[in-house]
Amino acid sequence: MKEKLQVKDLSYAYHELSGETPALSHISFDVEDGEFLAVVGPSGCGKSTLLSLLCGLLEPEEGAVLIDGIPREKSRAVIGYMLQRDHLFEWRTILSNVSLGLEIQKRLDSAAKEELRQMLTAYGLGAFQQARPSQLSGGMRQRAALIRTLALKPDILLLDEPFSALDYQTRLSVCDDISSILRARKKTAVLITHDLSEAISVADRILVLSGRPGRVKSVLKIEFAPEYDRPLARRNALEFSAYFNQLWKELRTDEDKT
Amino acid sequence: MKTKPDETADTQDTFRAERPENRRISRGSDPEVSESRPAPRVKSADQPEKKQPPLSRRQREFLEQERRHRTNVRIVRVMMLVLLLALWELFASFGVIDAFIFSSPSRIAACFLRMSRDGSIFLHTGVTLLETLVSFGLVVVIATAAAMLLWISRSLAEILEPYLVMLNSLPKSAMAPLLIVWLGNNMRTIIVAAVSVAVFGSILTLYTGFRQTDPDKIRLIASLGGTRRDVLLKVLIPSSVPLIISNMKVNVGLCLVGVIIGEFLSARAGLGYLIIYASQVLSRVHILTRLHIVLFLGLPNFHLLTLQAHDNISLI
Predict the structure, then answer these.
(1) Could you give the number of structural domains in chain B?
(2) How far is CA B102 from CA A50, A177, B56, in A?
(3) CB–CB of A132 and B33 under 8 A?
(4) pLDDT tens, B212-243?
(5) Which of A3, A105, A143, B213 has the most CB atoms around it within 10 Å of its CB?
(6) Does the beta-carbon distance from B20 to A128 stay under 8 Å?
(7) CA distance B189 to A77
């Protein structure tokens, strides 16, 4: 398969009057078309910075991000970004919340609206189109946030710990939901998480970053038998704990050094 | 931030509704945002709600208790006023206090009647009301626009901040004589004086509020391809509605203060003018009558805004 996203020798530091904080140092990796990549690392290793760089909210100080072989700033590819919290606006209905992106890009017409309605119905929010965000449960809100992101038809989807604000039970089912939706639509996705079992249960590959400044420490390929190919099912597979231990060890060696 | 206690409670509630542990599924698209919160007003709790199952006994008890509480508050409120007026009248008529200096409710009422018979009180009240409303409108528009401008340009905000703080702490009553010299002895001076009392603090409050917009919400707009203009229109303004309204509440009072200060110094009509006139001819009754009208002028304004605020946050 061909590379959808290439990251080449990326570095970034935050600048403040009191000094600079290096966040990422010489990161390189590829993501194939349709692949689900998870990024794990100790807290403060620049995971969120990485996503901001990938979607252009920040400009890299060194290195480059290529999409389909073209530099990101020249590429016409659409990148969807899902934040930690859903950030649905309380002053908008669910329907007008999910159409926010299209509205901003002035692409909201009746056909697009109809499509959004169908998506809401498909993901179990059909009855809540006119509801306010506070009337929805945490899991439903996160699904609405996903629809808001998918509405722009992104080529690549970036997920910044999208499940971390949910309680454990909801988290498992929403994670299962969302990753199945993404797989069914064959989206290329990069998921950032600090939850190792979440990473193993959804990803095709896991990128392990070191502590600050973040460097690529290792890349772990995750393979499960086809009958275990849903996140919840994966957790029951035998390989799961083997992967978990391997990942744990990778992260631990970093801690021991520092 | 200067907010009335009930207002802070409102904003806290909206914030609370955003936190995940408080999210709950409710039936259908009921506009009543949350049923977990005690009904903000008896009125809404009394109204039969569609799509709701019959109330349980405990819920009915709770509502009954709430209603009793609210009725009690209202009764005591009115009682207090009646008691105060009665004591004042009694003390004045039995000579405990000197009626010439402290006046008395009956004298004030008589004075009010006399002035309303010749219509002068309505003219003066009307003038003051008009001036207050005009300056209030100006303050809201100017302050909101200026705060947005400061938010758009960080450099401008940093350059102007000390000046704003300084202008805000400047005693405006000291400025008023200067204003007369600059602008003449007319209504324009009074309105400028009133605006100057309220506008600087208002700009600072609004700007501080605007700056507290969740940076993640701004990131969200950016990630959807939005510009700073989109942030302003889609996040900043709608999320600041409660703040703008609470700020308006403070401003109504400040504008009235400013108008009275202005009228003290330069006016041919208005309550401030009447007060000054009366104090020059040493008539306590007159002063107190007008002070009471000034007081009551503030009340309906405040209530109007409170209602508006509730409507806007769509709690009721």
Answers:
(1) 2
(2) 73, 75, 55
(3) yes
(4) 888 888 888 888 888 888 888 889 988 888 89
(5) A143
(6) no
(7) 59
